[in-house]
Every structure is written in C-alpha cells, then in structure tokens.
Amino acid sequence: MYLITGASGNIGGHIARQLLDAGHPVRVFARDPGKLGELAGRVEIAAGDFGRPDSLGAAAVGAKAVFLNTGPNPPDLPALLAALKTRGAPRVVFLSTILAGDAQFQLGRMQRANEEVVHASGLRATVLRPSGFMSNTLRWAESIRADSVVYNAMGTGKAPMIAPEDIAAVAVRALLDPALAGETLELTGGELLNVPQQVEILSGLLGRTVRSVDVSIEQAIQGMVATGIPEGIARGVAQSLEAVRDGRGRAMTQTVERITGAAPRSFHEWARTHAAQFA
C-alpha cells in the first residue's frame, strides 16, 4: 500500500490514479475528503492534516512508501518525519522544486532547507525537483473567458514547463522502486516555450484569438495576492517569473524519459487534454 498526500491537488491526484490503474492499493491522507471527487470511491482515506503529525504517522502504518507534498512552509516538518519514522519508517518521495538548486531564489532556499530536514531524518528518500507546472496556466482561464487575454509578466522568456502527469509518473516510479531512494531528480518538460507561444497554442485549440498582454512583475505579485496567495510566497514566485523573463530559466533535463521510458508531454498535448478548463 502507498500513502499519498495532496491527492486533491495537481500532483497527488495523478499519482493516486496512476497507482490504482497499475493495480496498487492506495491510501490518501486528507484533511477534507470531500475535495477528492471521484477518487474518494477508489482509495482508502486516512483523515488528518500536517498540523497534527501523529495523524500522518497513523496514516502511514503499513505503507511501503509515502508521497509527501508539504509545500514550502510546512508547520513542523521534523515532527512529520519523526511520526513516519516511528510508524514503520516507510520510504519517502518528497516534492520540492527545481529552484532548490539555486540559493538566489527565496522559494528555492525554503525547499532546500526542507530537503535537508528530510535527509537528516534518516528516512530513505527520493527528492523530486520539478520545473514550473503546465497546470499553472489554468490561472489564465478567468481572463481568457472574460476578455480573451493572458496577462504576462515573463515577456518572451522561455522555460521548459512540465505536465503534472509527468511529475506524477516519475513519483510513481520512485514510490515503487527502492533503488531510486537517495536520488534527487530534476524534472523538466522537453521543449522551451514562452507565454506568447503558449497563448498561440491555446488560441488554436479554443478556436478564437487570445492575446498576450505584458504586465510588470509587481502587477503579477498583486494579482497573485488578490487570489489569496500570501504576499511572501507571491514575491518568491515572482523571482522565478523574473528569471524566466531575463532568460535564466532555460535549462532542461532528460530525467522524465530516463525514469519513465517516455518523453514528457508537449504543452500542446497537455493543453488539448485540458482545453475545456480554459473555454
């Protein structure tokens, strides 16, 4: 059995479904099972939250491995890991960020510190460092529906965005394969695109013209804050937007194909699957 956290989000839900489709039993750690949708009927549910480390420990009893997505600022990561260690010490697949490899980024420093806590725990762990998610473009859906506009703080800077489904596929391999314990895997998509190119792809899929309109980094921060993202996190995200704008986000890896045997999805392929969410 495999324990999945964050199953109502972009990565955990795909992991749970991929494991189930391959015939593996799945237990989901959830604060609000009502957010699991159709997945709720296919998995075992363990109620709890990261603010109660013992609830995570109890959920991990009997698990071979745990997918742990705490975000950059968990309430008490050492206590969460200690709770896992006392309940059978399952392997951990920890979701970090590709920014953790560069100390100039606030979010990278936060997640790098979390990675160090994971390694210091003594649990056998695989760390995943994905680049920006293709699913982040779903934040454009409201302005596309209202005004056929995407507000762009990255100019013509290109980056190798990755589909959540591909992050999940690597996570599944790491959950199933103990030989990947101890590795830090940097994950990217297989193509470099900028926002205007992504908008052009969406225009074609939606059958109508969508425009890319440049905005400042500060405007992007305020837009994130308006959606409920804490300002400190928003400014951390803005650092990565600025890096892409300035041409510093172009590095690609071959890790997805090396681990899964399949090339990562293109943005066109991912967007075609999710086009209804933009319409």
Can you tell me about this structure?
The structure is a single chain. The chain is of the alpha/beta class. It has a domain at 2-131 and 164-188 and 251-264: Rossmann fold. 40% of the residues lie in helices and 14% in strands. It contains 11 helices and 9 strands. A 7-stranded parallel sheet has the order 3-2-1-4-5-6-8, with helices on both faces. The chain has a two-stranded parallel ribbon with strand order 7-9. Helix 1 (12-21) crosses helix 6 (164-176), helix 2 (53-59) packs parallel to helix 3 and helix 7 (195-206) crosses helix 11 (267-273). The longest helix has 15 residues, at 106-120. The protein is globular and about 55 Å long. The mean pLDDT is 95. Pfam families: NAD_binding_10 (PF13460).
What topology does this entry show?
Elements: E1 2-5, H1 12-21, E2 26-30, E3 44-47, H2 53-59, E4 65-68, H3 77-86, E5 91-95, H4 106-120, E6 125-130, H5 141-147, E7 149-152, H6 164-176, E8 184-187, H7 195-206, E9 211-214, H8 217-226, H9 231-245, H10 255-260, H11 267-273
Parallel strand pairs: 1-2, 1-4, 2-3, 4-5, 5-6, 6-8, 7-9
Helix pairs in contact: 1-6, 2-3, 7-11, 8-9
